[in-house]
Amino acid sequence: xxxxxxxxxxxxxxxxxxxxxxxxxxxxxxxxxxxxxxxxxxxxxxxxxxxxxxxxxxxxxxxxxxxxxxxxxxxxxxxxxxxxxxxxxxxxxxxxxxxxxxxxxxxxxxxxxxxxxxxxxxxxxxxxxxxxxxxxxxxxxxxxxxxxxxxxxxxxxxxxxxxxxxxxxxxxxxxxxxxxxxxxxxxxxxxxxxxxxxxxxxxxxxxxxxxxxxxxxxxxxxxxxxxxxxxxxxxxxxxxxxxxxxxxxxxxxxxxxxxxxxxxxxxxxxxxxxxxxxxxxxxxxxxxxxxxxxxxxxxxxxxxxxxxxxxxxxxxxxxxx
Length: 321
Fold this sequence. Notes:
Elements: E1 6-19, E2 24-39, E3 44-48, H1 55-62, E4 70-75, E5 78-79, H2 85-91, E6 95-98, H3 112-122, H4 128-141, H5 158-170, E7 176-180, H6 188-205, E8 208-213, H7 216-222, E9 225-230, E10 233-239, H8 240-245, H9 250-257, H10 298-302, E11 308-309, E12 315-316
Helix pairs in contact: 3-4, 3-5, 4-5
């Protein structure tokens, strides 16, 4: 545990489903259902899956923006859920979150310089006189100019707003950044610029990322290790090269088959999954993927597969492997 910057073990997050006149709990939405992984310092861990698979909930419970239902979360060996509110607040600057929609996360009535520097004042890490200089420095590192400080969010493009979101996370000089779908709302050309910015900042600042995305072609360029989630559970985890060259789970193979290949003569067999992702409030028995898996057997419908090492530190939860 001491080697990992972030260590998550058997994390669960269930949301109660209430019904009736007295709002009784009649069930639970299992948004995150027994997830385990670790991120070493300087590593970029990619978390991928369809919408509704629980990726964002993992990110928020990992830094205690949401309370967990069960499991353990350690940051540099410190159990985050054992800390008091006061001690957790002192640790907050070292863990930052970049949101999917930068515009909705910015106050439209607050100038950009104030929005970025607010955290420094709130945590008493700089005097008002020092804040402006530090904001100028972090804006420059994110590809923006000092005169942008006095503008409002509506005066920026989508790519510039995401750079502002990155600057706001960097201003506290964190160790860990959780990036929740940070490029999904951007044009492809702008996506490439932001991904290159993430890589540059990691090299110059020694950052560690938990990069959440539904696009495998994006995480391929940035992540060193990738975990694939389906309906609240992790179905496969491996290094980037291992996962892309030797996918084991049928769900991962289907996701990879949808990634465009920039070689016209090279045709990849497209695997089309039938049906929609089931409700996390009523997940299927056995393997959660068996309702959409073209290879499902009787055992898949009855037994929950064990998440195990299939060799070469390649983890998978599938009876057929």
